[in-house]
Amino acid sequence: MLSIFLMAGLTLVPGPSGNYIGVQVDNQYQYVVKAQVQTEYVNAGDGLYVRSEPSAESEKVGSLGYASSVDVVGTVVNSDWALIEWKDNYAFVCSDYIQEEKIEVQKKSAGNSDGNVGRYLGSYMVTAYEWTGDPCANGCYPTTGYTVACNSLPLGTHIYIEGVGERVVEDRGGGGSDWIDLYLGDPDACWNWGVKYRDVWIVD
Predict the structure, then answer these.
(1) Quick count: other Cβ atoms within 10 Å of Cβ 148?
(2) pLDDT in tens, 106-132
(3) Which domains does the chain have, with CATH numbers?
(4) 138, 192 in Cβ contact below 8 A?
(5) What is the spatial distance between Cα 185 and Cα 24, in angstroms, rounded to a whole number?
(6) pTM of the complete model
(7) Any idea what the Cα angle at residue 165 is, between residues 163 and 170, rounded to 5°?
(8) pLDDT in tens, 33-69
(9) In whole angstroms, what is the distance from residue 196 CA to residue 194 CA?
């Protein structure tokens, strides 16, 4: 049996045979997982949510971009969910949106309005944020159509976002290395934007 520590509330127990793992949730019920350790790849164009339990109603604990690799521990019996390794822990994704075959993402180039070619950075999760009344990390106030927040790119970096256009990193926020927060200012515009996955380039 695998000996691993799951997120709070989840406990592994022996399954009906050596090829199965039982997952208890707060000692109230369990999922039986058929062990199938392998690397798979996200084939959902808009990315894939990672959840605390094998249910679309469960808590979202993160997300994976298109073509991201994911280490699958096993598949939940009689369901379309997979148990995966997740940030030194374990969580669930819908197995309908992962595949065994590796997805090769074409390394693209893009130009801004002046025709300058940029270096392709990859697929980023792009969210949106509204006016807070505070200046950006660079000391300036955010501007719609210009400002983005990103923790992994230097302040002042000019980037080109697929379907959005050229923007400048002026603020910090969002999350990991593949996350950009787009300043839209208006709460309704941010709500309508939601979460999208877009290709991003450095603009030279």
Answers:
(1) 27
(2) 545 554 444 445 788 888 989 999 988
(3) 10-99 (2.30.30.40), 110-203 (2.40.40.10)
(4) no
(5) 43
(6) 0.48
(7) 125
(8) 666 678 998 887 667 888 888 888 888 888 777 777 8
(9) 7
